Amino acid sequence: MKTLVAYFSAEGATEKLAKELADRIGADLFVIEPERPYTAEDISYMNPMARCNREKFGNKDVPVIGRVENFEDYELVLLGFPIWYRAAPNVVNTFCKEYDWRGKKTAAFATSGGDGIGKTMEKLQPYTCGTVVDAKLVRTADELVDWAKKLQDA
After folding, report:
1. What does the CA dihedral 117, 45, 18, 76 come to, rounded to 10 degrees?
2. What is the pTM of this model?
3. CA torsion angle 114 115 120 123 (round to 10)
4. How far is residue 129 from each of residues 38, 55, 70, 71, 126, measured CA to CA in Å?
5. Domain containing 42: what range?
6. For residues 81 and 54, is the Cβ–Cβ distance under 8 A?
7. Do residues 79 and 151 lie in contact, with contact meaning Cβ atoms separated by under 8 Å?
8. How many other C-beta atoms are found inside a 10 Å radius of the C-beta of residue 112?
9. pLDDT of 115
10. Residue 96: which CATH number?
11. For the chain, what is the mean pLDDT?
12. pLDDT (tens digit, 9 = 90+) per residue, 3-32?
């Protein structure tokens, strides 16, 4: 099954796991990169005026650099990101809006989230035409790889 791992990483944890995942399951890799990179101040959620707060509560799109070539060829897309306010960061939602998800199986993995994965799956579905089949909070590469292989085999 042709698989894409697309990820956004604010502080490096998601990037590390996404790269290892793609390598171990033979998937292609795409970095969901905002046009304007985030600084430490931008993601300081305790500050009500931080960029992440303004984006989330203002429901703002966050422009993404680049596009996935031949997106239509992928059967499984694994989206990785940290949890921000019990959901994917807006940059992930913007990324999802840019593609036609029909005919794809989509799953999300999160690398942070004190409250767990919550309703992340349900919150992503409007941006992926309802194709999100699973969402999982992961801590280790082995856990992530096992989960992804089951999705590839399903």
Report:
1. 50
2. 0.91
3. -120
4. 28, 22, 18, 15, 5
5. 3-153
6. no
7. no
8. 15
9. 67
10. 3.40.50.360
11. 89
12. 999 999 988 899 999 999 999 999 999 999
93's enclosing H/E stretch is: helix 90-97
User: Rounded distance, CA 29 to CA 71, Å?
Assistant: 12
pLDDT over 70, % of the chain:
97
3-state helix, strand, coil in the chain (%, to 5): 35, 20, 45
- Pick the residue with more confidence: 116 or 75? 75
Q: What is the DSSP letter of 46?
A: T
CA distance 40 to 133: 32
Give pLDDT tens digits for 39-51. 787 777 767 777 8
| Domain total of the chain | 1
